[in-house]
Backbone:
């Protein structure tokens, strides 16, 4: 019943969580130290209508 | 007469003119008096006067005159070198709260405010509290991409606002298959700035909404404290969850392994992944090779 993707995921997670991670799941860089925002994400194909929100 | 009672009197006169509908005159008079305060370096009174004036004009739905005064206030902030503090930010927040999100120059107003907080604060991109309010105002006005930028750099409350903005947008798209397009945005944006806490919060909240809304088939996979939703039909959602965990490990082999497995479905993320590779795994971005330059420097004995 298990698909190749599911198998991969199970193995991958085991491997990735084997050791304690470098960073904690709660970690965040203070905004004072943020000097780069990464790359700009492409615009989405869908228009947002705030009047419908 | 003390300065303060003079200020109170000026404001009372101003208010009376506003109530009488003499907006133009009220606006001009206030500017003249504020000018006088600025010239005599009485910045505190100038700031109080302009702020109260702008608020009264906003209440009277005179957006044009009010925003003119807000720009003037920012000029005074600049001249007086007012630094970012609870008080100086709260004043701007109060003005923002009263501004109509449909005001035509709302984007310029928030840019002006943010530029001040960059110049006189400690964050390269501006003050997070200001961002939180700016982000929700821009979202209300339908300026989604601008709102997104501010919400990413906002406060703890901004995460929920960001999720709800994306969620509304997603449900408007009318195509449940597009979930990955929306989910990927906050995941990448938070990973870019090193905020794993928010990336995980988005994973949890957005995907729970998604499951509830679409009834998508899923299983929870848990291992050593990490938990994810595995979806049969949404490889991109699976990939993005694993990506958070992978960044957390900072293990370059895992990162490569993950990319190889999902190679087919993640082409659209190549520049994002290149950036994360550099930030979390020390993988240098390869610059395109300039053959001509190499040949020339080779001939000339250079390297």
Residues:
């Amino acid at each position: 019943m298990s698909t190749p993707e599911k198998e991969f995921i199970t193995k991958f997670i085991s491997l990735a969580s084997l050791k304690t991670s470098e960073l904690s799941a709660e970690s965040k860089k203070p905004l004072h130290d943020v000097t780069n925002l990464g790359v700009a994400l492409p615009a989405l194909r869908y228009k947002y209508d705030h009047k419908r929100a | 007469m003390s300065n303060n009672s003079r200020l109170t009197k000026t404001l009372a006169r101003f208010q009376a003119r506003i109530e009488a509908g003499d907006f133009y005159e009220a606006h001009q008079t206030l500017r003249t008096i504020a000018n006088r305060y600025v010239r005599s370096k009485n910045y505190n009174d100038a700031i109080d006067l302009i702020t109260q004036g702008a608020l009264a004009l906003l209440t009277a739905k005179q957006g044009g005159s009010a925003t003119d005064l807000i720009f003037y206030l920012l000029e005074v902030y600049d001249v007086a070198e007012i630094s970012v503090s609870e008080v100086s930010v709260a004043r701007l927040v109060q003005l923002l709260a009263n501004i109509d999100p449909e005001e035509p120059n709302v984007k310029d107003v928030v840019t002006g405010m943010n530029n001040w907080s960059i110049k006189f604060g400690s964050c390269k991109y501006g003050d997070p509290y200001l961002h939180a309010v700016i982000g929700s105002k821009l979202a209300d006005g339908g300026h989604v991409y601008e709102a997104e930028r501010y919400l990413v750099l906002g406060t703890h409350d901004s995460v929920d606002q960001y999720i709800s903005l994306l969620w509304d947008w997603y449900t408007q798209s009318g195509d449940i298959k597009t979930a990955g397009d929306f989910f990927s945005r906050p995941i990448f944006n938070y990973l870019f700035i090193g905020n794993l806490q928010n990336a995980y919060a988005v994973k949890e909240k957005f995907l729970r909404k998604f499951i509830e809304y679409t009834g998508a088939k899923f299983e929870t996979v848990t291992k050593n404290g990490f938990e994810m939703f595995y979806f049969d039909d949404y490889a991109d959602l699976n990939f993005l969850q694993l990506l958070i965990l992978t960044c957390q490990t900072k293990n370059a082999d895992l990162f490569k392994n993950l990319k190889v497995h999902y190679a087919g479905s993640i082409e659209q993320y190549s520049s994002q992944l290149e950036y994360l590779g550099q930030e979390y795994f020390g993988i240098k971005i390869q610059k395109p090779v300039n053959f001509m330059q190499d040949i020339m420097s080779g001939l000339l004995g250079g390297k």
